[in-house]
Specification:
The chain is an alpha/beta fold. It is about 40% helix and about 15% strand. The strands form four sheets. A five-stranded parallel sheet has the order 11-10-9-12-13, with helices on both faces. The chain has a four-stranded parallel sheet with strand order 7-6-5-8. Strand 6, helix 8 and strand 7 form a beta-alpha-beta unit. Helix 2 packs across helix 6. It binds FE3-S4 cluster. The site of FE3-S4 cluster has 16 residues, from helix 13. The site of FE3-S4 cluster (F3S) has 16 residues, from helix 13.
């Protein structure tokens, strides 16, 4: 990979040990993936924020960078932390964990990284435009960035994202290049879609296509939040970092997909996919919304579905939103949700928080959360549609024939 004289100088240590390490990492990645050069990125999303996953090792690395006075070279923001930075006690987080978690966020902030602590940065900061190069790390944000925004990022790891933030660059390979953004498989949907179905379909398609690039046909319209859920689920069960939706996503209509393998999903198949995870009698005591973090329209939708009903005893409902949303126009609706017994949190989510042993089971509408909660939180997750989750929380779950279960 070609390095400019300035880049070579950084690799030789001209700007200190930390930047030298960062350049070594990016140059190594570039060599491995046969990149021709490093390219500028307009933003970086840094993952690896929770003390639950990063531990003491993360604190020592960040302290080393902070001691050297390193500052990031491009707009950079943080993925969710292991707790709500203000209401952590209400999440059952211990003071010891809270102290470590606050230290991690402080250290990242000292490097010049914005402590947004959200996996939906595109709803907080100016989103990148079609064709713009960025280096984002959280898998659902990567999927949204590539697919829905049409900007370009590889699925960065926490270290490569941090190195990109420190240098403002990334190696030019993978999804930064036109030739690697072509669809590899068609997913033909021949079924009526209800709200929440795309997250279930995403969970199924991810397991089938792995790291492929699916091209969806048969989605007449989809809200941005539904595309967000579709991508998040495929990124979790497979490692899908880019998908296209005919007539909807920005690059879709530029491809000829004739001759590609086709995966068909009709009404019967969709029923089977939904039946796999649905469990109205789930032994769960938490309903979790906000993976990825909720936008205003999703908050409004949950409030509508509650329809004045209160969360039942023995069950909690947690919603996770970007902190910026708490102060926005939606705040009165968030207040109404709180009155209904819903608990609203920011900065974090159930997957990266230390929830082990706190809940018997967790019901969620997120294909991604349902995939990760089992292993990362030692709990039994159940995937349902948003309506079903709300009905479960208030104790009015029906079997589809108005009969209460
Ligand atoms: Fe975001 Fe946590 Fe889900 S980081 S995408 S809410 S697992």
């Amino acid at each position: 990979m070609h390095l400019t004289p300035d880049e070579q100088a950084i690799l030789d240590g001209s700007q200190g040990k930390s930047k030298q390490k960062a350049m070594k990492l990016l140059a190594g990645l570039g060599e491995f993936y046969k990149a021709d050069k490093l390219i500028q990125v307009s933003s970086v999303q840094v993952s690896g924020v929770s003390y639950k996953t990063g531990g003491e090792a993360l604190i020592s690395v960040l302290e080393e960078f902070a001691n050297e006075g390193i500052m990031v070279e491009t707009t950079s923001f943080l993925n969710p932390a292991g707790m709500d930075l203000v209401k952590w006690k209400e999440m059952g987080v211990t003071p010891e964990f809270a102290e470590k978690q606050k230290r991690i966020v402080e250290l990242y902030t000292a490097l010049g990284i914005q402590p947004t602590c959200s996996c939906t940065p595109y709803n907080i900061v100016e989103p990148p435009h079609v064709g713009e190069h960025v280096a984002w790390a959280e898998s659902s944000a990567v999927s949204y960035c590539n697919s829905v925004l049409g900007a370009r990022t590889n699925r960065e790891g926490s270290l490569s994202a941090l190195a990109s933030a420190m240098l403002g660059k990334t190696p030019n390979y993978g999804l930064h290049l036109d030739e690697n953004r072509k669809p590899t498989v068609v997913v033909e949907l021949d079924c009526e879609l209800e709200s929440g179905d795309l997250a279930m379909i995403g969970r199924h398609v991810g397991t089938m296509v792995k790291s492929g690039i699916p091209y969806f046909k048969g989605i007449a319209e989809a809200k941005l939040s539904e595309l967000k859920g579709l991508g998040a689920a495929m990124a979790a069960t497979g490692s899908v970092a880019l998908y296209h939706v005919e007539h909807i996503t920005p690059e879709a209509d530029g491809f000829d997909v004739s001759g590609l393998e086709v995966i068909s999903i009709d009404e019967n198949e969709l029923d089977k996919i939904k039946a796999l995870s649905r469990d109205p009698k789930a032994d769960a005591d938490l309903v979790f919304f906000g993976c990825p973090h909720l936008g205003e329209d999703e908050v409004e939708h949950i409030l509508e579905l509650l329809h004045g009903r209160h969360i039942r005893e023995g069950v909690r409902m947690w919603l996770f939103v970007p902190r910026a949303l708490l102060k926005g126009d939606i705040s009165s609706k968030l207040d109404s949700l709180t009155t209904a017994g819903v608990e609203i949190f920011a900065d974090s989510c159930c997957v990266v928080a230390p929830l082990d042993g706190l809940f018997k089971g967790i019901v969620t509408n997120s294909g991604k959360a349902a995939f990760y909660l089992k292993n990362l939180c030692d709990t039994k997750p159940v995937l349902m549609t948003t309506q079903e989750c709300v009905d479960f929380a208030v104790g009015h779950f029906t079997n589809g024939t108005d009969e209460l279960i």
